[in-house]
Specification:
This protein has 327 residues and is of the alpha/beta class. The protein has three domains: 104 residues, YqgF/RNase H-like domain (Nucleotidyltransferase, domain 5); 87 residues; 107 residues, no CATH class. It is built from twelve helices and eight strands. The strands form two sheets. It has a six-stranded mixed β-sheet with strand order 3-2-1-4-5-6, sandwiched between helices. The protein has a two-stranded antiparallel sheet with strand order 7-8. Strand 7 and strand 8 form a beta hairpin. Helix 10 crosses helix 12. It is globular and about 70 Å long. The termini are far apart.
Length: 327
């Protein structure tokens, strides 16, 4: 008999509801959030779906459930209607009702290999963010000491020599931290370039001028499987690049992009579009960007270009064809 298990997961303990094939609740139990406790409490029910919310630490829990033989589903936390009375038991019951009513908003559960690539690309993104923050702090600290420089001195040998002579402990400390981050960034970038040589889809994405190994891996890690989206517009919606819409009666107004969905994918696509129009002036994408930029300005035009780019990327992967400047 197939069972359905819904879980309200916390770092220390988990509340579980177990229902039979007809939806009748047959057991409620609470146990420690450990692999051993999960096996002891749930092993005999492991022939059906297990549903949990997509919390920040879902990955080990999902792995434990899959090892037991469950068909794991993630509930999208932001789209679950919230009950007025909230307890761990009620939350688990609520997931069960949504699942039984075919009303559960699901989140994507990436395979382990996709998750591994996603972790690498996201950490590279983190290192880039930290290096930019440290460079900005370095410039601010220089300003405090009366050194008003047009360019960041850390980028040149002459600038480095100047920084070493500045008698300010916070500047020297920031410089040392920056060097550590840059070294880690360089090492991880080499790893990413090696990873992408073994990924045919990454090699396809890299045929687009403006998309390098890092951006390709970031896009692949966030999308996972391109085939899970029926159309390029659906993929654009997942990235939050489609325009918002307000329709009432005879009025139908479209506004700025929704910014719903995956913010990392949206950032990667916008950056790819920006790099593309800079480095590939002859492509149809760039010409479309230029036409729109004249009418609506750079910011709106580059987002619209990213929205077109994502449909191009999906078509490339599906057809297994590289980018064509003028198709």
């Amino acid at each position: 008999m197939p069972y359905t298990v819904t879980l309200d997961v916390h770092k220390r303990e988990t509340q579980a509801c177990i229902a039979n094939a007809t939806g009748q609740l047959i057991r409620e139990t609470r146990f420690r959030t450990t692999a051993k406790s999960y096996k002891k409490a749930l092993k005999k029910y492991a022939d059906g779906p297990a549903i949990l919310e997509c919390v920040g630490f879902y990955r080990p829990v999902a792995a434990w459930l899959e090892q037991l033989g469950f068909d794991v589903h993630l509930a999208h936390v932001g789209k679950i209607p919230k009950p007025r009375l909230k307890t761990d038991k009620k939350d688990a019951h609520h997931l069960l009702r949504l699942w039984r009513g075919d009303a559960l908003p699901e989140a994507y559960l990436p395979p382990q290999e996709v998750q591994r690539l996603r972790d690498i690309a996201r950490h590279r993104m983190f290192l880039g963010q930290q290096s930019r923050r440290l460079k900005s702090k370095l410039k601010q600290d220089l300003n405090k000491h009366g050194h008003f420089l047009k360019t960041n001195p850390v980028e040149t040998k002459k600038g480095r020599e100047f920084l070493q002579k500045v008698d300010a402990p916070e500047i020297q400390s920031t410089l040392r931290l920056l060097d550590i981050v840059l070294a880690e960034q360089e090492e991880l970038q080499a790893r990413i370039e090696q990873e992408t040589t073994e990924l045919p889809e990454a090699q396809l994405l890299m045929t687009v001028p403006g998309i390098g190994a890092y951006t390709a891996l970031l896009i692949l890690g966030e999308v996972g499987d391109f085939s899970r989206f029926d159309t390029g517009d659906h993929l654009g919606a997942y990235a939050g690049l489609v325009p918002s819409q307000h329709q009432s009666g005879d009025h139908d107004r479209k506004g700025s992009i929704t910014k719903e969905g995956n913010p990392i994918l949206r950032w990667a696509l916008v950056e790819a579009a920006r790099n593309h129009v800079m480095h590939c002036p002859d492509s149809r994408l760039t010409k479309r960007y230029e036409e729109m930029a004249e009418k609506k300005g750079h910011a709106k035009a580059i987002v619209a270009t990213a929205r077109v780019l994502v449909t191009v990327l999906k078509a490339m992967v599906e057809k297994k064809e590289g980018f064509k400047v003028n198709p």
